[in-house]
Amino acid sequence: MGIFDVAFLVSVVTIAAPILLAATGELVSERAGVLNVGLEGVLLAGAFGGYLGMRLTGSMLTAFLAGIAAGLLFGAVMAVLAIEAKVDQIVAGIALTMLGYGVTAFLNERFLGSSRTFEPLPRLSVPGLSDLPVVGPALFDQDAFIYAAAVLVVLVGLALGRTTWGINLKAVGESPAAADAAGVGVRGMRWAAVLFSGLCAGAAGAYLSVGDVGVFREGMTGGRGYLAIAAVLFGGWRMTGLGTAVAVFAVADATQLRIQAAGGIPREVWIAAAVLVLLATALARFRRRATGVRPTAVEAAALACTAGLAALAVTAPTLTVPVPLWLGMPYLLALIALGAEGKRRHRAPEALAVPYLRSEV
To answer: What is the pTM of this model?
Structure first.
């Protein structure tokens, strides 16, 4: 299997879990009409809060509770700005991100000094299932956070689609005036959604610092908050699409890590890339078949790209790419994914990022 072995799948799941949890919280917030662009800052606050809690108490549970508390605090700041003060949500989110970078860096340097490392969360094997080939080690031999995140994501997905709360949340994001007239508390729903987003991001940040890496570093979230926001957009504000987007980003990130370790680009990477581009092109063509649209320039370029990747797979040239370019691969992929689908992905709630002024009703 080359670089695409069982260890690769384990890495994909580990990378995907915190992004998926943060993206789930962001989905709830955006369904309610609040766009939290400051998710990166909330993740950083959670990472620092978890690390601080671990240093003070040595308890992993306390560390996660501290990370969640930090996430809730930053979520409350976002809610005050976006819901109460009705500040432009994009500006408020950018300010929250910069606040997260600045505050965590200052507190880490001023009060904590030299860093300490901790043992990450231990892996918990599910009897019987962890012995399954391939999927067993990847899905059923993980730590408690990944299991808990998976359960929470499933519960949120069910709540969004099958409960009155989910219907009310969607109503608040689509038409807050109509929801208010029907007796739904718009302000309360938005506050709860933003705080839930902060809770998820805080827990995800704590996992990054103490649950997975075991140490806090300035800016250690590395843009995962932006990937979570991109996953919500690319997923069309639906749980299934969100999960697919997070999986794609995690695979890209895990691939670039393995390629860095390999020192070059193995043949199987070219083959996998060619197959993925071809499948994406075929899926796009299938979706447009009913409308009778002729092949587009993008599809022609994708086919040419597939041919080029197939040629590289055959020749397997020795190529080395600077590490910073590999680090940017998941984010480049996010931009391509968002731009490739065009208007079909623009299914945002009608009142997203729009302050609700009850006096205007």
So the answer is: 0.89
